[in-house]
């Protein structure tokens, strides 16, 4: 009797496909004889590239088509960059698995030989207010302009001289093996100076809560990444954060401890917090930190 097939939905970019292959490779370690099918779905966010995301739906524009496919049983799972997922998922759906986290940091990429400090005004490509507010604290001579497109498109815009530098997630360029291009130089921004977006560096698997394959996703789930993502997403929910608010939250789990970094822009100023506590009290720690920051308003 032929084994069942698992259909995995993904966007069609190189990064999305690489991340989906990582999920399939992990699943094959558990169920090597199963058939796995990649189903490419084009999202609204992939179709509209000439407008900022905030103008036409925010993070949901990268997820809604997948959720519809899941609910109509056209796919069994969807693979996402966790940082791109909205806070509220459709009823009956959940994040059912996460892989081990890659580098969560942001990276400032410039052409070889470029010295941002020497420019009177350096044009930096980023559509993230979180990145913009933090990078402007590190460099007082920069001007941030929006940039859209996949990783390769953005790097090509840098090559063409449209920007003096661009900021990308380290995890993305690592997975695409674009972190050692000979014509670029890379400055990885320390967590304390540029707190990442919630979920940055984590590959999330979305599926039905009652799927027959949920146990498979649980077997490939990384314990620390799961804890970190839960705390980060809960913190964003406590903030009642919109998809493009300048908020950073990062949790780092060890065996018994959790360290949480948070940043939020308030009236043009960045408020930062960093706390460490018992890992079993991670959600309570996140709630207390959010309350402390919100009291600054």
Structure description:
Monomer. This is Porphobilinogen deaminase. Belongs to the HMBS family. By secondary structure, the protein is of the alpha/beta class. The protein has three domains: 1-99 and 202-221, Periplasmic binding protein-like II (D-Maltodextrin-Binding Protein, domain 2), CATH 3.40.190; 106-188, Periplasmic binding protein-like II (D-Maltodextrin-Binding Protein, domain 2, 3-Layer(aba) Sandwich); 222-297, Porphobilinogen deaminase, C-terminal domain (Double Stranded RNA Binding Domain, 2-Layer Sandwich), CATH 3.30.160.40. Helix content is 31%, strand content 27%. The protein is built from nine helices and 13 strands. The strands form three sheets. The protein has a five-stranded mixed β-sheet, sandwiched between helices. The chain has a five-stranded mixed β-sheet with strand order 7-6-8-5-9, with helices on both faces. α4 links the parallel β6 (122-125) and β7 (142-145). α8 (223-239) packs parallel to α9.
SSE layout and pairing:
Layout: E1 5-10, H1 14-30, E2 35-40, H2 44-47, H3 64-71, E3 77-81, E4 93-98, E5 106-111, E6 122-125, H4 129-138, E7 142-145, H5 151-159, E8 165-169, H6 170-175, E9 184-188, E10 203-208, H7 214-220, H8 223-239, E11 247-253, E12 257-266, E13 269-278, H9 282-294
Parallel strand pairs: 1-2, 1-3, 6-7, 6-8
Antiparallel strand pairs: 3-10, 4-10, 5-8, 5-9, 11-12, 12-13
């Amino acid at each position: 009797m032929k084994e069942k097939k698992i259909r995995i939905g993904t966007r069609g970019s190189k990064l999305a496909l690489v991340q989906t292959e990582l999920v399939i490779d992990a699943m094959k370690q558990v169920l090597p004889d199963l058939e796995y099918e990649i189903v490419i779905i084009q999202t609204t966010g992939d179709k509209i590239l000439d407008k900022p995301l905030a103008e036409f739906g925010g993070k949901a524009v990268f997820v809604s088509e997948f959720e519809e496919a899941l609910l109509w049983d056209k796919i069994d799972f969807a693979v996402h960059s966790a940082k791109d997922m909205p806070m509220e998922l459709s009823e009956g759906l959940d994040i059912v698995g996460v892989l081990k986290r890659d580098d969560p940091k942001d990276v400032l990429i410039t052409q070889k030989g470029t010295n941002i400090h020497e420019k009177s005004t350096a044009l930096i490509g980023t559509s993230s207010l979180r990145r913009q507010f933090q990078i402007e604290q590190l460099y007082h001579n920069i001007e941030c302009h929006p940039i859209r497109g996949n990783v390769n498109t953005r790097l090509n815009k840098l090559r063409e001289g449209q920007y003096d530098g661009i900021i990308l997630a380290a995890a993305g360029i690592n997975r695409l093996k674009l972190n050692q291009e000979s014509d670029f130089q890379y400055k990885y921004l320390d967590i304390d100076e540029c707190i990442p977006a919630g979920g940055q560096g984590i590959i999330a698997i979305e599926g039905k809560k009652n799927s027959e394959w949920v146990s498979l996703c649980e077997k490939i789930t990384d314990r620390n990444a799961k804890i970190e993502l839960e705390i980060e997403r809960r913190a964003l929910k406590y903030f009642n954060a919109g998809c493009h608010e300048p908020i950073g939250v990062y949790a780092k789990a060890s065996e018994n401890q959790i360290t949480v970094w948070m940043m939020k822009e308030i009236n043009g100023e960045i408020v930062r917090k960093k706390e460490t506590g018992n890992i079993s009290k991670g959600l309570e720690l996140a709630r207390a930190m959010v309350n402390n920051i919100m009291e600054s308003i």
